[in-house]
Amino acid sequence: MRKITTLDMTTFSVVKPKQKVAAYIRVSTSNEEQLISLEAQRRHYKTLIENNDEWQLVDIYSDEGITGTKKDRRPELLRLISDCEKGKIDLILTKSISRFARNTIDCLELVRKLMDLGVHIFFEKENINTNSMESELMLSILSSLAENESVSLSENSKWSIRQRFKRGTYKLSYPPYGYDYIDEQVIVNEEQAQVVKRIFNSVLKGVGTERIVRQLNEEGVPTKRNGNWTGSTIRGIVKNEKYTGDVLLQKTFTDEHFNRKVNQGELDQYLIENHHEAIITHADFEAANQMIEYQASQKNVAVGSRKYLNRYPFSGKIECAECGDTFKRRIHTSTHKKYIAWCCSTHIKYRDECSMLFIREERIHQAFITMMNKLKFGYSYVLIPLSKQLETSNQDENYQMISEIETQLEVTKDELNTLIQLMTKGFLEPAIFNQQKIELSQKNMKLKEEREQLLYLINDSSNQLSEVKRLIKYFKQGIFIDAFDEESFQDIVKKIIVYSPNEIGFHLNCGTTLRERIDR
């Protein structure tokens, strides 16, 4: 007779495989103090990993005396990535995001790559583990950091250009159709100038822009870049004051999130009259623009705005990541069923120039709902770290620098007063007085420009911080949504970026971009 014995499984234990863990450390210089710090970090991680029964130490990867701005300059980091690709590592420990990659754009790229390999990272300082939260939330944090870094790097360049605007020393880097740039001078291109005059004459005769376009394209008249003429190109020429010989600077600007905008009074504009030779008289220029406005009014199109700007919630807000153009609303038909889709304007006209496919409006609605619910659930992972970063992003240092500049301005003012007194008492020669006065004036101007730049940065950061705090308050009180809400969309989202037919990004008013995958 068979004997059957029931085994008590509680007496058995399942052996769980240990997690393969590595650590990455880095110092930027090779001096003695930094090398001591590197050794301390190495010992810390070795002890930490070996004392955890669930972990198995793979290796300690360390770069010494190497800057963290670019990942391809750090051999140990590249070796770490190579070992991850070979399946040797499950988890990476590192001190902070800045130690892993000071250039946070590279950090974002590395995190995505490692997560695709199934490797997660734990940042000790930020207490962030990419395995303990949804990947979209983690990437959103890093994206915010990357964008803020890019903004700060670009401010100096934009500020310098604005100073040249004020002084009238800015040089046109790309003159419009009808002109060439020769020996640092804007010179009329006679052949193209005849086309410009033809366009203005046609507009003054009441010829529509589309008819002008058709005629020029049929005749094979080349554009500035040897492309096809379009209605917007014609209108751009007619509205360009440079054909009168004047130059209006800062008609458009790039904001802190790299969005190109028409200057509606947000920033000062600067008019330089008689900057170069005119092709069109001021009278013809004004008359042609009046004709364009009249033609637009006949079609119920507001001048200076998009025709359908306020007609639909997504109008003018969807941007193609491939070509930069906006999306248009279309009605598609599939198996006798109609649905709304949004298509790239460039793809509609010239498919060879942009391959981006359309996106159904219902998919955008669903992606927005998902994004909102994720933020409701995880705003503390996305918005609160961003808020803390903005609150501590060198504002104290900027205020301190402004205080030092104010002190230097007072000193300069006193020096100038002393100089004037010496001159009036006859202790200084006029030539010496003028030379020193010029030097002090230049120093004073430079200090004021530096102060202006710092104040601009502080104010810009303050506005972004206010928007982030408003969103935090909104999501603390909000509830999960199950339908698209146009009011919430307009209040929170600045624009939608289409990366592919399966992925879009919601660029929020606070500056961060959250990506969502969508189904076709």
TrEMBL record:
Residues 176-298 form the Recombinase domain. Gene3D superfamilies: Putative Large Serine Recombinase, Chain B, Domain 2 (3.90.1750.20), Resolvase, N-terminal catalytic domain (3.40.50.1390). Residues 318-352 form the C2H2-type domain. One of its GO terms (molecular function) is DNA binding. This is Transposon Tn3 resolvase. Residues 402-453 form a coiled coil. The keyword Transmembrane helix does not apply. It holds the Pfam family Resolvase. InterPro entries: DNA_bind_recomb_sf (IPR038109), DNA_bind_recombinase_dom (IPR011109), Resolv_N (IPR006119), Resolvase-like_N_sf (IPR036162), SSR_resolvase (IPR050639), Zn_ribbon_recom_dom (IPR025827), Znf_C2H2_type (IPR013087). Keywords: Coiled coil, DNA recombination, DNA-binding.
